[in-house]
Structures are given as C-alpha cells and as structure tokens.
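Technical appendix A lists one of the benchmark inputs used to test multi-chain prediction within the project. The record comprises three sequence entries:
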Amino acid sequence: MSAPSTRRDFLAGSLLSGGGLVLGLAFGDRARAASFFPGAAVDFVPHAFLRVAPDGTITFLAKHDEMGQGIHTGLAMTVCEELEVDVDAIRVVPAPADPAFAHSTYGIQVTGGSTSTWTSFDQVRGAGATARAMLVAAAAERWGVDVAACEARDGAVHRTDGSGSATYGELAEAAARQPVPADVPLKDRAQFTRIGKPTPRIDSASKVRGTAVFSLDQRVSGMLTAMVARSPYFGGALKSVDDAAAKAVPGVKAVVRVPSGVAVVADGFWAAFAGREALVTEWEPGEGTRMDTERLRAEFVEKSRSPGLPARSDGDPEGALARAGRTLEAVYEVPYQAHAPMEPLSCMVTLRDDGGAEVVTGSQMLGGDHPAVAGRLGVDPSKVTFRNSYLGGGFGRRANPGSDFTLEAVEVALAARSLGAPIKTVWTREDDLRGGWYRPMFVDAMAAGLDGGEVVAWRHRVVGQSIIEGTPFAPLLIQNGIDATSVEGAADMPYAIPNLGVELHTVALPVPVQWWRSVGHSNTAFAKESFLDECAEALGRDPCELRRALLADHPRLLRVLNLAAEKAGWDTPPPAGVGRGVAVHESFKGFAAHVVEASIEDGRPRVRRIVCAIDCGPVVNPDQVESQLQGAAIFALSATLGSQITFRDGRVVESNFHDFQVVRMHEAPVVEVHIVDSTDEMGGIGEVGVPGIAPAVCSALRAAGGPRVRRLPVGNQLA
Amino acid sequence: MKFPVRTPAALVGTGVLALLAGLAACASDAEAPRPVAATEGAPSDAPFAAVARVLRHPRCLNCHPSGDAPRVGDDRRPHEMNVARGPDGHGVPAMRCASCHLPENQDLARVPGAPNWHLAPRSMGWEGLDDHGLAEALKDEARNGGRTMAEVLHHMEQDPLVLWGWDPGAGREAIPVPHAEFVAALRTWIDGGAVSPPPGTTSTFEEAR
Amino acid sequence: MRIEFTLNGEARAVEVAGTTPLLWVLRESLELSGTKFGCGRALCGACTVHVDGTAVRACSYPVRYVAGKQVRTIEGLERDAVGRAVVGAWIDLDVVQCGWCQPGQCMAAAALLSADASPDDATIDGAMSGNLCRCGTYPRIRAAIHRAAATLRGEDGR
C-alpha cells in the first residue's frame, strides 16, 4: 500500500481546472485585465499580470504575497526573463483580490505551502513571453519587416540588422492592438540570463529605509483605530462589560459589541489601547476551562497507548513488533506554537454607501478573505475592493481558514458604522499570542522493532487536533477520517522498513488551530528523525550510515544527506564538548538535510553551527534560497529551544516576547546553506528548511552528552 | 562536624542585637502588616536578618548580581535579551539600561523604571552571599562603593533606585516590609556596631511564607 | 501638552498627551511609519530610535521625555556616515526578509557602530540581542554590521 496523498496532491487533482480558468482569463479577457491597472485605457495590457505604459513604465502585478520569502523578486525575475527587461526596470505591485490571480494549483488566491515559485513559474514566464511576442509583432509591423528580423532585448525591440530600435514604451500602444498569440514558446533553461543568478531583492531598500508600506502602516484621511477585547478563554463568551471608564479615555470615539468581544474605537492606537485597558469585562469561560497543558499532555499520552485510525500500513507492523528481538518505544511531544509574525495583525475597512467596502490588510489568502467579506456584507465580491500590503511575516497565520482577522475588522466597522470613518482594527502582541490559531499540540508515540542489526518494524501514532476539520478544505484533505496534514511527513516517510504503520488519533478541543510554517511536518519530522537516531544508537550504527541504508531508493534525499554530511565534516570528530546531529526530510516537494553542532553549557543548550543542504530543483534566485534556509533554521530553532504556548486554568500563559521566547542574536548559530545544482522537478523552499532542525538539534545535544530530549521546547530540560 | 561553631563573641553580638531589634520593632508602626520573620540557622529576630531579607529580595538582588548580567522577575530569571552590565554598569552600546528603563515605571508597558537605572558595580554583587557575607559586603568600603556606614544608611534611605523596590510598578512584588522598617532595622544594626552575623545563615522572605 | 523637540534635524512640535508613547506620535501624529510596532513592551526592538544618541524603545517611551531633545528615526538615519554605511550594508547584503524589524535593527546597529567602530561578534551579540527578527535574518545582520564597520574604516569590506 502506498502512502496517502498529501494536501498538495489532493488539491492538484481536484482544482486543476481552476488553474486553467485563470490562464484563460489572464490571457483572453484584456478589457478585464486592464481594469487592474487604473488609467490604463490606451496602454499595453496583454493580460492580468503586466502593463506597459507609453512612458515606458512596466508594472507587474505579483499574484503571490510578499511576506519575506522574496517572491516578488523571484516572480519579477521570472517575468523579466521572458520579457527581456531588467528586474530593476519594472515596478512590482501586489495583485488585488481577484480570481485572475488564483493560485495555479489551489484554485484560489493564496500564498502558502511553499508553492509560489513552482506553481507560477511557467504561467509567469508565459505572461512575459506573450507580452514580448506582442511587442515584437508591433515593432515588425511598424518597420514592415518579419518578426524574425526583430529581437527583444533590454526593454526594447531591435532590428537584427542594427538599423533601428524602439523601446517598449514607444511600442506600447501598437502592441495593445496586436492579437494575443495563442502559444508562445518559452526559453530553454540554457538560455536563461536572469533566472538562476543571485539577484538583489527589489524590496530591500524600501524596507530598510522604512518607506515600504505594511498593513499596519496603511493610513487614510479620517481613519480611526480599533482594538478588540476578546475572551481569555477559547470558547468563552462575554458576560458583562462596563465601558464607562473606557469611554472617558480621551480619543475614544465608541465602544461597540462585536461577535468576538468588545471593540474600542479611537482616534489612534494609544487611545484605543488605553481605552481597552479601562474596560471592565467579565467572561463566561465555557468549555475553555478544560484547557490545561499538563492535563492535555496526560490525555494525549493516554490516547497514544491505543491504536488510532490507520493512515498507512505496510507489511505487518504489529506482528513484526511483537516478534522483534528487541523493541524500542518513545513518546515525543510538541506544544501549541504561535506564529508571532513581527508585524502584529491589522485590517482597515472602509464601508461604502453601496453596501460594499474597501479592505486593506496583509493577507496570505485574499482568495478566501475577499469572498468571506463580501458574504458578510451580503454583496457581490465585485462590490468589495480588497488590497494587500507587504506582510510583516506570515508563517501561515495570515492565511486564516476562517478569515478571522479580516472578518472581525468588518464586524467592527459595521458595529461602528455610525462614526462614518474608515476603521483599522489592530492587534497587540498579547492579542497575537493569546488569540489562538496555533500549530496544534501533538503527541507522537513511536515504536520500533530491531532485529539482526536492522529496523524491521516501525509504528508512528500521532495524537492531536486537526487543522482542517471544520474548514472548507475538509472535503479535500480529510479522507476516511484522516487529516492528511496531521500525518504528512509520517505517512509518506521514505525509510525502507518492511513493516510500517502510521496511525492517527484526532482530538477535538476548543483551541483554534491552523497551519504553521511546515505544518504537520513540524512535529512528525521531529518524532521520525529523533526516533531513527534512537534506533541507530540502540543498533550501534552511525546515524548517517543508517539513513543512507534506508534511503537507497530516494536519490534526492540521499544526495542532500551526503552533501550536508560532507560539508559539515561528519566523518571528522567534532570539537571537544560538541555533538553533531543529523536529519533528512522531504516536505513541500523540497528535500533538505541538516547537520547541527551543539553543546551544553551551564545546563543550557547552545547551537553553534547548522549546515543545510537543499534540493528544490531548478532555482530562480539562489541568494533568496540561502536566505530562506537560514531563516527557516532560526525560525525552527526558536520552537526547538524556547517558544511555546501553554494553558493554565483555561487561559494562555504566555503573553509577549519575555515568556514566548524566540531566538535572539546571541543565540543564533552560523547557518551554512548548500544548494544542490538540480535539474529535477521544481519544488518548495520556505518551509522545507524547518522540519529537520528540531530533531537534528536534539540529536546533537544527545551526542554532546545530554539526555534524549523528546519534548519541545528543550527549555531547561538539560539543567 | 555537625554543628556550626560559633565564637563566644558572635554569640554575644547576636544576642545583644536581637534585643535591640526587638526594641526597634516595638517602636515601629504596630498596624503595618508584618510578615513572619524567618531565617535558617539563626534566631528569627536577629537584627541583620531583617536587613538581609530585604537585600536578598528580587527587587534588590536582581540588579546586584555577582556576575555581569542582571536578573528579572520574582523568579529571578536571567534578563531576557542578553543584557550585560557593560563597562559603566549602564549596559553596552545600543543596549543601555536607559534604552528601555526610564526615570519612572511604565505600567502599561510593564517596563520598570527609576532615576539612574543601572546595575550595581560588580564589587557590590550580592548573589551567593549568606547573611554574614552580606553584612561584610555592606561594611567593606571596597565593596560598598566607598561608603561610610552613615553613607550606606543614607543610600538605603534616600536613593531613588533603592526606593523603587517599594514601588516597583505593575506585575512585580514590592518588598514586603515597609521601607521605614527596613531603614530602622539597618540603623539599629549599624548603631549596635554593625556586627556581622555568623556564617551559615541565609534570611529570606520566602521561608516565612 | 505641547512638546517641542528636534526630529531628524528639524524642529518639531506636537500637541499630545505627554504619556503617549513616542512611537505613536511618530507613526500617527507625524506620519513617519518607518518606526515599527512589535511588542509594546520594549522586548523586540522594532521601534528603536535614537534620543540624544542613545538607542531607545519608542513603544514604551512617553513622548514628554523627548522635550528639548534630539530624536532620530530611520527616516533620518542616512544623515550621517554611520547611518549611510549601515543602510548601504543592509541593502548590499539583502538582509531583509519580511522587513518589519529591519528599521529597528538598523537603528540599533548604528548606535553600536557609533560607540564601537570595530565590534567583534560578542559585542554584536550584546548590542543586537534586544532586536528580534522572526524571519531569522541574524546571520546577515551580523555580516552587515561587519560590512558597515569595514566601510566606515575605509576598507572595502567585501
């Protein structure tokens, strides 16, 4: 039996027709495409992505959201490769919410799953090539020559005999009258002059200088600021509120009830904050009182002792475990985890007299948020203008399956409609950390059978909440009771073990949960790779050697494993007191291996060096692949060493960066990134670097003489 | 050896000072709530114990570290963000104490503050000292900032950074005895000859709870 | 209350409650949104600005404390050689990812380099550990500080 499909495969199979529709619209309906570019009536707008103005300005609408991953630069490089113009000669603008910018595989406009580059690569190249062909055709017509006598280069069309040239701006109006060619050939990889070369980010300067506009920076005349007091208990409800003191705070304009709580609307952030501090609220805890981390741990572990729903069964795992000469068992645990993007959430809503609205936010899923807002307002989506900003970090939080922060902002605007003002609803860090939508807590119960120096049986039992249940994605991603995202990285695990079982217990709890950078892999890889190391230790085998032996049929995993081991000097002894750990894992169509060097100093973990090898297929911008892998390592290190969300008496304990501890400069190791020069299938990057960190770190700490850490974060478990 | 050896002089000193402390307590505001004094290994009313309990309270000890980094909170965890004393006790470049700590508490932000917020010099590190060691440190001009005992008393009585311990802002426990009582105990101890208690005693408020 | 101070070299006056954090005066009253909000409790450094040359956290800094003082924000960082070196190095090395924390990182780095022209890694750890980056750009921040220091010393730095 083969592993069940992952989220990606389900979506690819079910929604591909959406992708085709997008292409049809993008390349066919030019009048509609022009509507995305205000004032573009006579300009050249070949499709939804590009506009060439007569003054030479080239505007490119980026369908994927820029949240740090460098996708705007990557998409610009991709379109420029075919358009034959330099990246710094075009303007990149976030695409508005519109089906024209739907994800080529998922079918709605969304950025996530480490899919932006590989799913849009051919589409965006096609956009550039189509535009170039029309510009060349316009030039050929102007000069009365065959298109073969014309060549596009550096933002202009040149006659191949050197007798003349015209800039794209000069050709724009004539190009706009050209028919859209049906099938424009794309360049071969060998012809690339931009793709594959380290290229500066287009957003560096504005972000460094503070001129880049994020959601929280959005400002319109007369705008008010709102903050919502929400239930401190998940599933709780407001019992009473006394807003007299809040209304007396200078600058507070109104205090209104919204479904999620009580909103204080004020003339600025500080007045809204002070007003909210002055609210006296009482809450009915509801079922939220059940939430207590220690109790949940015990319940999850108890559940893990009984069989769950089968997600994979190769051979006879139970029989083989019973017959094995030696069995190992271990329970791994990961806590609830917040995304904590550095820019707290915000969303500005301006209600219009026609019943529609203008919404400006920082969202990873305009394709979900836009129709959700229109639905709440009871209007056609065309009545809702939805614009995106730069996202000050996302990590999954801003692709909310319930459109939580956009819909809440709409509720605030509706409740305070009489103020007649645009209202920006803002979140504080405390709101962010205590507001839910976490990566769920999981227990992974592992068992292995060892015989004859080999791993002959393997059982991986996952216990945790489903992030998909109750969302529109459920029909696609939950099959036979198995949420594919709960077992990804486990059910499709690559090691050649003849008897292999993966089971799932799905737990229902009132905590809102969702995807967090690397999703299910963030816990399954921790358990799988750590436990394989435990097997290696029990068998007296080298962790790299054992992996190589079990990965003979997985050339891309083998290649990154060998590259990371070689670059880290796996076969040479580490410095005194330093241990090395290794992990290798496939996720999001990317293949990553990590070797970590760590030591234990005064009972505290110190991660000194991380060596990463990545194979994501052909690379658009190697410098940003390096940057993503560095960042992924440090993001994952925070969850490995310090950050977690816990509950006591029904409430979230953590509130800000003093107790939600993420890695700071003095804890940040050297991260060396080695990219495989690969011509294999293009895959993901941003999340691929996360899953291997926790197991590699914990194995390194073990090798450094510490205990085997089976519960994240490491915290003070070494003391 | 099972029992600490006390010299006769130390025993006499302890007894005399205990008596004095008792008198001082009688003179203080009888209505003020008083935690039960408790110490380990010495009479509970030893006069320096009342001083030592305060000096060992997180509000004082957190910024009198024996190393180069302050601590924070009632649980005395290391100060987040790798804070270090720096050459002048006011932090390092770009991470000065004054980068975050103002002359007054910022209660909405939960950032404590008082004038001249900084770390006590390393010579005044109190961590790891027992009551004897604390008393010796208070008296030693090489370890008390070159102060006479009168100046030590003045520092404890007047310095805004000391007074902050009784007004530490939202989310932090104030030192749980009145400031006047602390000063009176200190004065009593000094007036009685500032005799160090014998080694081996560590007085804290926790033991009383 | 009316508060007068110098902002990026220009005299400014605002009429606000003196307890309002400097951050919101900068971002809302003065419409300079380069200084960012990240935690509101001086824990993340995204709001770092300079007051009389000292790096401070504007999110928890009542504006009345800047009366009569020199305030410098990211918008004015490139008014001197240190600031230009920092911004230049950050851009050259493509430090940014999401970018939200980076103006604060640059302000902290400039304060560091103004005090220490050749910081070693331990000094960088001391100066920069108050500035969080969730994207994990620390390796490049460290490299950019070394690069800016080299630029200021007149070296190529590459």
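Chain A touches chain C through 62 residues (CB under 8 Å). Chain A has a mean pLDDT of 93. Comparable benchmark entries are summarised in Table A2.
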